[in-house]
What does this fold into?
Amino acid sequence: MHKLSILPNGLKIVVTPLKGTQSVTVLVLAGAGSRFETKSISGISHFIEHLFFKGASRYKNAGEVAEAIDAVGGDFNAFTGKEYAGYYVKLASHQKEVAFDVIGDMMLNASFNLTEIDKERNVIMEEYNMYQDTPMYQVGWDFERLIFGDQPMGWDQIGEMSVIKSVTREQILDYKHSLYTPDNVVISVAGAVTEKEVKDLVAKYFPFGNDKRKFSAKPYVRVASSGKVKVQNKKTEQGHLILGVEGLPALHKDEYVEKILSVVLGGNMSSRMFMNVREMKGLSYYIRTNTDDYSDTGIISTSAGVDLKRVDLAITAIMEEYRKITEAVIGEAELTKAKEFMKGKIILRLEDSEEYAHLMGKQALMHPKIETVEQLLKKIDAVTADDVLRLARELFKEENFRLALIGPFEDPAHFEKLLHY
It folds into this structure.
């Protein structure tokens, strides 16, 4: 059972002791994702994520950070999302203090050395180029821009190349001091650990002051769409597409109805999209339906890698599956299979202390309360076939569909004609 503590300065500490593991994950989440940015600093959240591991007070450079964690056989990494950034170290429980030491040092004392900033510009530009050369990534960003428009929710986390080249140390420090404050940070620890151990180590290695977060993310505003289709003309051996609609925000009353809907459509290898588009018609190599949920909006979409010569057929086949799920109640067997699949995946993921730390930490940062795994599983069980049909009809209206496509294609109007039942 997790334990949540809130210190007088607003810092949240979530401790989840786990039986049957000898590992510990120490994860720090900060409400400092890319939707907190403006155009002039688009990409700064991701840039800072790169710089945190480059040296601080006790660990002077990237080499010393890596050596400290390698010396105990640990793993460390970081990530930047739209609404938060995360930093974690996972290691054997008897070495847990190393994790608190390293992350605490970088969180409070990161030096943001000018030489390291300039070196990291080149690294991030190469990462940017990698994504440009990987249509499976790029098409996702194109789709988000279609759905959310030209505002922070619709921008890529990696940011603008011009910002990567020009962002200054002063801008980085200002952003860090504005958002990496105790009232905007969660320390989530899961594994072979006790609440007292964690609180003692947080007191020792995370001596935050009393600074307050300086600003919040701008609310998402639904904007008039600039079109239903985005085509990026590129020489590829396969067409990459994402076809879907704006979905539900996190904590919506139908959040788990939407998740079950996505599983039935394309969540696994026996789903409708997989069986009917890939297996029966042979139109795609990969195909899957996913949901993305944010605090005030979301997405439900199907992504696929398709035969260049039969891309029209693939789009039509995907639309057909969207249509069919709005017309008839799914059978009990299909519903039960989707529920058990989803519950099984949650349970399997939570064999890992890192996943547990993330689940509890994200809720502590983003949600008004933390729900237990048992409570989440009950929400899945409560979904009915009538719920799925009702939500499918609400979401999958023809006018809601958007399509992003990358490949040797040119005419968006041609593909827009296919977005009909």
Remarks:
- The CA atoms of residues 3 and 15 lie 5 Å apart.
